[in-house]
User: Fold this.
Amino acid sequence: MRFLLDDEQREFARTLDDMLTAADTPAAVRDWATGDHARGRELWARLADAGVLALAVPERHDGLGPLPLELTVALTELGRHAVPGPYVETVTVAAFLDRLGDEATATTWLPDIAAGQRTVSLALLTPASPYALDPDAADAVFAVDGDTLRLAESADEIQPSADPARRLARPRGGTVLAQGPPVRAAAAHALNVAALATAAQSLGLGRALLTRTVEYARQRSQFGVPIGSFQAVKHRLADTLIGLEFAQPLVHSAALALAADDPAGGREIAAAKVAAGEAAYVASRTALQLHGALGYTEELDLSLWIRKARPLRDAWGTPAACRAGVLADGLAGDGTDDRAGGRVAAGRPERSA
Assistant:
């Protein structure tokens, strides 16, 4: 199995990196945290024009996919630049509607999702995880409760989060769009897509934190020498790099398994999710420590990255849930037994972060 990206995929990543580097993403994150979505929506439109959202939409509905590997490439760059917004949830809705088998609903939503004309969010409702991400910014919120799919009509007030740019609220009411076993099976597939996309986002976030920390360790001096020359600092940075390097092929392997509809894909996605989430979290702690705890200062852009690591680690599957998913042979199996999927969906980072 080949884990290296090909030339076209690497060029796609470079294009997104250049685009987002030129954009003022920290300003977009700060605005998003206050409920001002103007900058974030501009980024959304530009990324949609680049084909990011179309990667999750099948060609028959004006998309480019589904292309899970290319989607992980894109989400890694979004994580690297801390782009705000329900990107994971939107591509997950696209995967859900594609798998649901309701062509009328798919035709209504998927072309607009691919074109970036509709921002959507998704909540797989459980007692422990009753929230949708960014419902105030979304044009629609899809809520799955057991075997019922609803289009929510409203949402409660925004709940606090460790990451201010992750704006959570409970979806309320709504019109029933579908019911029955197909909804449950589509939700199981959507859960895998969400976990994989979040793993890719975590991977990019971790790499950005490591890059910034290495640069700082080269610049900051103590006792007349850069702190990066200290053995303890070198070891800490090396351990962080090893974790991220180990997670990357797991994420790519999981994407290939999802693309092939491999029965073991759920297990591979669970392994990728826990590896990437933990690696990004370690990167955030390393960044915080080696910057001398300056990450607590909200004026520093670094804090925007640090505060995302733990919520992303736990979103769409806590480490404990993902490890249980590996042992239970996947996040959601074949849809006939949703116990593992329920454990993953129950992970809510903001309760503990």
In short: The domain at 184-352 is CATH 1.20.140.10 (Butyryl-CoA Dehydrogenase, subunit A; domain 3). The longest strand covers residues 140-145.
